[in-house]
Write a structure and sequence with these properties.
- The protein is of the alpha/beta class and 405 residues long.
- The protein has two domains: 7-132, Thiol Ester Dehydrase, Chain A; 138-404, Alpha/Beta hydrolase fold, catalytic domain (Rossmann fold, 3-Layer(aba) Sandwich).
- Helices cover 39% and strands 24% of the residues.
- The chain is built from 15 helices and 13 strands.
- The protein has helices at residues 24-41, 46-51, 124-130, 176-181, 207-220, 233-244, 264-280, 282-293, 296-301, 303-314, 318-329, 335-338, 358-367, 383-386, 388-404, and strands spanning 7-10, 53-64, 73-83, 87-96, 101-114, 142-146, 149-156, 161-165, 186-190, 226-231, 249-255, 345-350, 371-376.
- Strands 1, 2, 3, 4, 5, 6, 7, 8, 9, 10, 11, 12 and 13 form a 13-stranded mixed sheet that branches.
- The mean pLDDT is 92.
- Bound molecules: D-malate.
- The site of D-malate has 7 residues, from loops.
């Protein structure tokens, strides 16, 4: 966990009201003092003068929980919860160490403006101070505005970047074990648009859109390149990133994915699945997919995991399901792309994957110069969840070699 250390603030008598406790307006000032002190520890105030920009507060909300008195010492922590191109949202928590009480919390939305009052880009230094340190506890969400949608993203740790792209119809939690295990890397796992807790617009889904979302997410995090880890549909997106944003890819881990486009029959199946999603909802999609995506061993021995995946699919917005089906149906053929891949590549497949069988993964790996293939025993189409320890170990060995190479 690499949160910004809290700032310690003492409450003065002049900040308190007639009843002797910190008044509401002054609370905002206390948070402001903490914010400036945090910025002073980083790039400092000069940054704004030099660039002729200013962070203007557009919205502030404060929750007051406990009265605070002159002489009280507060520890104020600041965390970036949302980073857009020209805006950012900060969350403050004020804790009184003397009694361990959380006394107030505030969320502030800032827009960066230039000397003429026009929106300006959030400086990289500020994003690095707050954003680059954003770390989330398991399950905690940070939101990033990209490409017209707000994505829920898990960002953990420091080091070279690893971008995890989930498959269909899952969400970022399929990577939960690898997000915990792969320390020494900056692990970034978004819910793709239409999935998990990200926005799910009604239309506009394509591999190009997902790939651009991912490139913009790297921009928001001020990251140049990442090793992209894509499972199934996540792999299709990785191929699209190779076409559209090749300079952002430092390496590839392709799990249970394929380069071929949909056949005519496959495309028809997409339309049928979309019709079921529209008429019967995501629960019907879960019932159809569970026997296909989970390996035989998982179905027999891990009923809790099967139930978790069922719930994950059931919670997926129908707009996201229908959008992804359309995006997969219209995706490009990536078979010719394979021989042009020059970044280090690992291909992983579950021995019991019925959707993309090991033979197909082997053929894909052999078409990529210098790719290696690992088969995961006892796993189907979602090895990161079905055989988490084996998958984390295989990823870790590959990543250490990438880092050393
Ligand atoms: C996935 O797991 O992402 C999908 O099942 C892939 C597909 O349907 O082609």
């Amino acid at each position: 966990m690499s949160r910004l250390p809290p700032v310690t603030i003492t409450v003065y008598a002049y900040e308190c009201d007639a009843y002797g406790h910190l008044n509401e307006a002054m609370y905002l000032q206390v948070f402001e003092r903490a914010r400036w002190e945090t910025i002073a520890r980083g790039p400092g105030m000069e940054l704004f003068r030099q660039r002729d920009i200013w962070p203007a507060v557009r919205k502030a909300s404060v929750d007051y929980f406990r009265p605070v008195f002159p002489g009280d010492v507060l520890e104020i922590s600041t965390e970036m919860v949302k980073l857009g191109k020209t805006s950012m949202e900060l969350h403050h928590r004020a804790l009184r160490p003397a009694d361990g009480q959380l006394v107030a919390e505030a969320t502030l939305l800032f827009v960066m403006i230039d000397g003429s009052g026009n929106p300006a880009k959030v400086p990289d230094e500020l994003a690095a101070l707050f954003g680059a340190r954003v770390s989330t506890r398991s399950g905690e969400v940070v939101r990033y505005d990209v490409n017209g949608v707000s994505l829920a993203v898990d960002v953990r740790g420091d080091g070279p970047a690893l971008l995890f792209l989930h498959g269909f119809p899952f969400n970022r939690t399929i990577w939960k074990h690898q997000l915990s295990a792969l320390s020494g890397w900056r692990r970034i796992a978004p819910d793709l648009r239409g999935f998990g807790e990200s926005d799910a617009p009604e239309g506009g889904y394509s591999m190009a859109t997902y790939a651009d979302d991912c490139a913009q997410l790297l921009d928001r995090l001020r990251l140049g390149k990442a090793v992209v880890v894509g499972l199934s549909m996540g792999g299709y997106i990785a191929f699209e990133m190779l076409r559209r944003h090749p300079d952002r890819i430092a390496g590839l881990i392709l799990c249970d994915t394929k380069a071929e486009p949909d056949s005519a029959e496959g495309a028809k199946g997409r339309d049928e699945t979309a019709a079921i999603a529209r008429t019967k909802g995501a629960a019907a999609i879960a019932e159809r997919m569970i026997p296909v995506v989970m390996g035989r061993t998982t179905l027999q021995t891990q009923p809790q995991l099967v139930q978790q995946v069922r719930e994950m699919i059931t919670k997926t917005p129908v707009a996201g399901i229908v959008g992804a089906l359309e995006a997969m149906k219209t995706r490009a053929d990536s078979t010719d792309l394979l021989r042009t891949i020059t970044v280090p590549t690992l291909v992983v497949v579950g021995r019991e994957d019925g959707m993309i069988p090991p033979a197909q993964a082997r053929a894909m790996a052999s078409a990529i110069p210098a790719a290696t293939l690992t088969t995961i025993e006892g796993a189907g189409h979602v090895p990161p969840l079905e055989a988490p320890t084996a998958v984390s170990r295989v990823f870790s060995e590959f990543l250490e070699a990438v880092r050393d190479g």
